[in-house]
């Protein structure tokens, strides 16, 4: 039986202890700190502790982080549901592909589609939202292609490298 988290281009799987170096590389990539609200590096010890607790239930920690892997098992990125709210049946979604070579190949689209199917069918969410910077054209196109709609903009929300940027909020309501 095919898993709901398995596609043609990628597989979404739980984080494993062996993902420590990959997680360390992504979390400490200065190029994504602007979008992840990171201000200081993560230590391997802190990330090891995080991995040790990654098995905890989404109902308890309000987050589900999965590793995006190629069918061969190669790690490609991370995707997560965050701010999970079971009462209102909603969560945020975030996705990052670690390597430029994997972007614009349909992997991100498939990974988000797989997680949306899981969120709507297994978790029975009513809606999922995504936040992104106004200049993140690739993310805007990805989420719009998947039926997300722009519902608002937080003006001057992110201050980075001496200037402010607007953060956009996209929303998809289960039909």
Question: If helices are DSSP runs of H or I spanning 4 or more residues, what is the number of helices?
Answer: 6
- Average pLDDT level: 92
- Low-pLDDT segments, ≥5 res: none
Major β-sheet, in short? 7 strands, mixed
Listing every helix as H and every strand as E from the N terminus to the C terminus, the arrangement reads EHHHHEEEHEHEE
Distance between the termini: 26 Å
Tell me, briefly, the overall form.
Answer: globular
The structure class reads: alpha+beta
Rg on CA atoms, Å = 16 Å
Helix content: 25-40%
Estimated share of beta-strand residues: 25-35%
Strand order of the largest sheet: 1-2-3-4-5-7-6
Please tell me about this protein's structure.
- The protein is of the alpha+beta class.
- It has 6 helices and 7 strands.
- A 7-stranded mixed beta sheet has the order 1-2-3-4-5-7-6, sandwiched between helices.
- Strand 2 (64-69) and strand 3 (75-85) form a beta hairpin.
- Helix 1 crosses helix 3.
- The chain is globular.
């Amino acid at each position: 039986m095919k898993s709901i988290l398995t596609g043609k281009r990628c597989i979404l799987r739980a984080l494993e202890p062996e993902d420590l170096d990959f997680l360390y590389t992504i979390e400490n990539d200065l190029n994504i700190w602007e979008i992840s609200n990171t201000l200081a590096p993560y230590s391997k010890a802190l990330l090891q502790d995080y991995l040790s607790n990654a098995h905890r239930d989404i109902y308890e920690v309000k987050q589900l982080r999965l590793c995006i892997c190629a069918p061969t098992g190669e790690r490609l990125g991370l995707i997560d549901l965050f701010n999970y709210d079971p009462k209102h049946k909603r969560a945020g979604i975030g996705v990052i592909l670690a390597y430029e070579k994997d972007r614009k190949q349909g992997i991100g689209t498939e990974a988000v589609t797989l997680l949306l199917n899981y969120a709507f069918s297994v978790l029975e969410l009513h809606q999922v939202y995504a936040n992104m910077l106004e200049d993140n054209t690739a993310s805007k196109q990805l989420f719009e292609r998947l039926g997300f709609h722009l519902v608002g903009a937080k003006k001057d929300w992110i201050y980075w490298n001496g200037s402010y940027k607007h953060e956009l909020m996209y929303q998809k309501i289960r039909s």
